[in-house]
What we know:
The protein has helices spanning about 5-30, 30-40, 50-60, 60-65, 70-80, 85-95, 100, 105-115, 125-130, 135-160, 185-200, 205-215, 220-230, 250. The protein is an all-alpha fold. Helix 12 (about 205-215) crosses helix 13 (about 220-230). The model is unreliable at about 40-80, about 90-120, about 160-175 and about 240-260 (pLDDT under 50). The structure holds a DNA duplex.
Amino acid sequence: MQSPIDETTELEELEEFIINFRMRRLKLGFSQTDVGSALGKLYGKALSQPTISRFEVLNLSYYKMCNLQSLLQKAFLHNPRPTSEEFGHLAERLGMEKKVFEFGFTQTDAGLAMGKLYANDFSQTTVSRFEALNLSYKNMCKLKPFMQKWVAETDISLNNPSSLSNPPTPPKPIGTRRKKRTCIEGALLVALVTAFGRNPKPTTTEVAIIAEDLGIGREVVRVWFCNRRQKEKRISLPSTHPPMHQPEMFANRIDPYSANH
DNA sequence: ATGCATGAGGC
DNA sequence: CCTCATGCATC
């Protein structure tokens, strides 16, 4: 029902774009939340995100990293999110002071940029899933234009700081309270997974039976199956590993550990 | 980064 | 009720 060939080609394109997207985000020192916010006003959604901590690590040195060529790029691809300690090692190897990295793009700089962010839009969740290709193909194709727009805008603002538009205050449409998240683990989870294996699309009646057997709400079971089915449709990436493509320019890794064997 | 939840749209 | 896009909350 799908067009494997076209889709494969397009997917490669998409992956390439996403890698560049991610690099840019990191280079600018923006967190996923920042991007989500900056993308905003298109939908005018509200969001809040506890990802600020990540922000520090990210912005503290990529700016400099990007100014240092291949060696750093290799390092970047090998490990896009080094810890402060790893930065120390890297700086050492390059004969540089760690603080040179740290202050290439300061929190102040980044904070300044952040202060000019537009209204909110996509959440950190969405940006994260987008970068990890952890969404349906269709969904990512839809999101791509927005991400692209962000890339274009940050491109301009890099050379012209004052061009960043200002910010209509983001509305906070608090409304109905959300149900407390149910925790499904252990035997319960096993039981559901097993049931799912037997039949991924249980009828209302079957759901009721499962719910009763497990002693949990029917709605919880129903939603669990829905989410599970949806999960199966995501593309997802073996993200614990390096990027999928290995342009020859980045073919040589600098990982000291892997060189030994 | 990801699990459970919500809501829109479709049948 | 389902699928889908999304995100709050939490790991």
